[in-house]
Amino acid sequence: MRLILLGAPGAGKGTQAEMLMKLYNIPTISTGNIFREHISKNTELGQEAKKYMDEGKLVPDELVLELVKDRIVQKDCENGMILDGFPRTIPQAKALDAMLKEIGKPIDSVLDVEVPDEVIIERMAGRTVCPSCGASYHKLFKVETVPGICNECSTHLIQREDDKEETVKKRLEVYHAQTKPLIDHYQQQDKVLVIDGVGTVDEVRARVKKALGVN
Ligand SMILES: [Zn+2]
To answer: Quick one: which residues bind AMP (predicted)?
Structure first.
């Protein structure tokens, strides 16, 4: 099963990826992990990618494609793989399609875990964290005893920059602008499975399985 997994930050994509990895015995592939592996092993491709990253530049698509191809032909991808965070653009998607066609391993489905922005904002913007002991809280799911004070060590709780409503909104805007064209691209190939990502982990898991035709 070769899948592309799409979902906004905070949509619970990671949890579903874990389930799919076990279900199909396939790895999740992200370009970040591939880069890190090649760089730590100091491969030729890794050295090349590192040059761009050290200069703060984007790694060119051709090089990313080579790295992804090198990863997909490895033994643990025999049963397939989940692509997470790649492709991000239409040129990347087209290049990926061509490469996978060439090696006879086309994408089966694109799973799009959809959660309305308001729900994601509520999930993420409700989080607070203790800067001293690291304990985390949530205004809906894990409420501290004294408002704004850590249960464990009585330190004032803070909100991470990443969890602030404005930050979350901006990240969602970027995500939608980037992802919409990809969804259109794969819809033309009739490969998009839209999953309602609102609900418990088990509910969403059941929907994913149903969409993939698994009991
Ligand atoms: Zn604390």
So the answer is: 31, 36, 57-59, 85-88, 92, 160, 171
Q: What mean pLDDT is predicted for residues 51-71?
A: 92
Which band of pLDDT confidence, cut at 50, 70 and 90, is reported for residue 130?
very high
What is the distance between the alpha carbons of residues 176 and 7, in angstroms, rounded to a whole number?
9
Domain count across the chain = 1
CA of 149 to the centre of ligand 1 (A): 8
| Contacts with 76 (C-beta within 8 Å, 6 or more apart), sequence order | 26, 27
Q: Is 145 contained in some domain? A: no
* Residue 147 CA to ligand 1 centre (angstroms): 13
Q: What is the pLDDT of residue 140?
A: 86
- Alpha carbons 175 and 166: distance in angstroms, whole number: 14
**Residue 10 is assigned to a ligand binding site:** yes
Q: With bands split at pLDDT 50, 70 and 90, how would you rate the model's confidence at 99?
A: very high
Return the active site residues: 13, 88, 127, 160, 171
Residue 141 domain-assigned (yes or no): no
Distance of CA 215 from the midpoint of ligand 1 (Å):
43
In a domain? residue 152: no
Query: At 196, which CATH number?
Result: 3.40.50.300
Is residue 66 assigned to a domain? no
* 119 pLDDT tier (thresholds 50, 70, 90): very high
Asked if the model's pLDDT at residue 215 lies above 90, the reply is: no
77 is in an annotated binding site: no
User: How confident is residue 162, by pLDDT bands cut at 50, 70 and 90?
Assistant: confident
Residue 113 is assigned to a ligand binding site: no
Tell me if 11 is assigned to a ligand binding site. yes
Task: Quote the tokens at residue 131.
Answer: 């800067």
Question: Which positions ≥6 away from 154 have C-beta within 8 Å?
Answer: none
Range of the domain at 197: 2-26+79-115+172-211
